[in-house]
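Q: I'm writing up a methods section and want to include an example of the input and output format. Could you take the sequence below and give the corresponding predicted structure tokens, formatted cleanly so I can copy it straight into the document?
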Amino acid sequence: MIIIINYRDFLTSIYLFVILETTINNVKLSTISIIKKISEKTFLFMELQRYKKNQIGVCSNMRLKDQVSIVTGGGRGIGRAIALAFAKEGADVAVIARTQSEIESVAQEINDFGGKAIAIKTDVTDESQVERMVKTVIDRFGKIDTLVNNAGYAKHAYIQDISNDLWDTTMNINLRGIMLCTRAVYKYMLEQKNGYIINISSGAGKHGSSQYATYSTSKFGVIGFTESLSSEGRRHGIKASVICPGPVATKMRASNHPDDDISKLMQPEDIADVAVFLVTQPQRAYIQEVVVSAFLF
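A: Here is the clean output for your methods example:
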């Protein structure tokens, strides 16, 4: 049995293994071929390490231990990734969305790896449902440390094709929903004198483009709302940040861009990493806005 102490030892052992393998098989390999074999085995090792970490689930650092988080739109895509990432860091998570089966699946996944999560079916555009959801979280966990307003809607259209229904649906989910959830949670954070609210905007909230008039308008609004929230919350110890992701491989993205090269898109976990980074900064540090671009897109 070989015990790998560190990465240098691993590379050394792989090199010796490749040399031994070629000697036993009486195969002569060029230096380039040997390097290629080492690279392939290194990639496999790193993939296995990543897999083991995901299987273990709970991160050893547990940087969000004893914290309570609400994640809207948590049944799939970016919301699901954030809910899982927060739970792996030790947070108790309330997974919120309209599709019961999806949020129950995410909550079960968290509970299965030793985390703690509840699923609460909620339409974020309905004030009574939002108030009831927040009360349920308070009754269950006693506080709310973080709210992630991720629930969103996108359907692109040229100006002349924008219907009143499309406009109203987009604004209700992307803006009214954020306001309702923030307002309901904010009063508890004021009593606590601390808290963190993360709003998910978009790269389309920074720059408008063809067919994006409705979506961009709503996402520009998310940024403006976050800036006002930050200004008000600062004096009460409440932070507010906005994340503006570029193209991410989600079901919503695919419905509007079926011809995307998925290999060039970011993954939901990339945005989840940003969310974890924000909420684990010391109280003295503050980042109001993060723009995350797809490097290959």
